[in-house]
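Review form for a predicted model. The reviewer records the input and the model, then writes brief findings.
Reviewer: anonymous (R2)
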Amino acid sequence: MAETWQHLPATVFGYDMIRRHLLASASLALFCLPGTAAAGDVPSVDRAPDSGLSATRDAAVVIGVEGYDQLPQATFATADAQAWKSWLTESIGVRSSRLTLLEDPDATAVYRALRRAGSRVRRHGTLWLVFSGHGAMTAATGGQRTLLTREAAADALGTDGITLEAAVKRLLRRRRADRLVIVLDASFDGRGRDGLELVPGTRFEAPATEPVTDDDRVVVWTASVGDGPVDTWADAGHGTFTWTALGGLRGWADGILDGQPDGHLTLAEANAYTEWTGRMLGTPLHPGLLGDPSHGDLVVGAGSWLEDGPTDEQLAAWSKQRRDRRFEDMESLMRAEAAAFWQATLASAQQGGAEGRAALEAFIDEFGDKEITLTWAVALPEVLEARQLLNRYDEAVAAAGPTPAPLPSGDGTPARTGDGGTASDAGSSASGDAVADTDVIDAAELEARRAAALAAQEEARRAAEQAALAQLQAAAQAAEEASCDDLVAIEPDAMLGKLSPGQIACLDLRVRTDRLQTDKEKASKVLIINAQSRGDREEWARLVKRHLTEISRADPTLAMHYAVYLYQTDPVEYGEDAIHWADVALENKQVWEGDAHVDNVAALMGLRTQAAYKLWIAADREYRAHPDEDLEWQSEEYRGWTKDFAREWLDFLRAAGRPADLALQICTSAAGTADFCRAR
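Model under review:
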């Protein structure tokens, strides 16, 4: 075939360029054009559910590179980034002031944002880095994963961009964060979202499980481990990984690993859901967590805000739509390819002679037996069920511990040998024939021995039955003592801090498994009362935090007490958290009446103001000791909080006729002028 084409005129050689253009155009249409049937049925992940959480210590950088100067566009990357931003701010609770969203940035802008995030994260917080776009490797084999920014050159894929290692170092340079979570919706094998090579002839080999760093704080969740491709879903308006991942993080993934939803969503569940749903949609994804397997245990969502996802029937219907559209697009591509080649062939055939004949033969050889082969994944529910059962089996084996050694015979008698004697008898007879000759037992004595053995066995059996009955009775009594069915009945014990370990475990189980929200709230509050009555402040704080973040934050008094606890523990270390829960309490201040309303609202406004003031003073002190642009920004942000909170507190105290000297003092200090704080 190639030898025949060598005789064709230059017009036919132009076919290769035409074909590449058609492939790119058709692939773009294949992945990006919206469908016509039931497109609106695909749930949107653009706006994340509000969890009520506040990750005041966290900072984040979200990057979406869709338009490249020299490379094919990464379709929907911008929409991906915006959706990830919504999830981080609404579901995780990252403050908008500590999140940087970059759309089509260059490397300089990315490095600047990474440095800023590393400075803005607070001690023991989490750093988040999300990237949607094209990726590459620094070498064809054995290289490092690289994030390609807008200016990435087609002839320097391996050297342009930002390596993950460099990004990690920039983010963790201050060593404030306890964890860095990186999410990558990108392929690193040299292909784009349309399945074609970014640069013809350039491919990379990406390691499947190798971590990007030896720092165990780093968690990397990538859309494609190894050399797997990524793609998009036009009806969803996102990359397939982003849509399935954010869907899983909304709660759709809860229980995917073992078939038992528990209201706590882990990163491993989200990853498994992404992989399974990609297959359900017909285009298998190969996502994975790079590095330490324990990263999968990271809880990324919990509480009543988690929602149910699409049904298997819906996913199957969408898969069929995608498959039909994919086939139609492939057929259209083939017809367009043939039409372009035919035009070039006619130009040669019209010249006649050997060249014309060769052109016609080449066309027939190329298109005479064309077929369409479409590979489509089939997701079998039995496979998912088998995996879930296998996970349950592994959990049961792990919980049971090592297999115990075999127990001796229950009646204490030696084991019988094959000929009816005992093992000791067999040993004795082997020791010498003289003993065997004189050791003669008559039939009556043998019968007596047998009767005694049977009696001993019967006595042992009765003793075992009595012991088992005693154990059952003890278990029943313990179960009765550990019962928590009647919350009203056990509340007096809780108020004295005298709940038994069994009752505490029972209540904790109810909090996690009861389906009615009111039952969860009641059981949770009984546990809180018990911990408070025992004087266990750490356990009380843990239970209150769980109640407010996972069950309900409608009780302003509980939120107020938690805010006070955080402020008293450390007004700088937990200042932002104290401010957040004070705000939550103020959201429901209408619950209080009369003097209680005035007292509590004034106290909460005062707590916010004084927490912000201490944060401002601490940040300003750090900035003066180590001048830095980000520290200066942080100091000014806290100063703004102090000024605004103080003014609101001041106005409330004046309206209520309460003393306002401290509020006025802080307001004037933060504003820099008394005019701002004068009565309006």
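Findings: Residues 443-481 form the longest helix (39 residues).
Further findings: Confidence is low (pLDDT under 50) at residues 1-40, 403-439.
Recommendation: see findings above.
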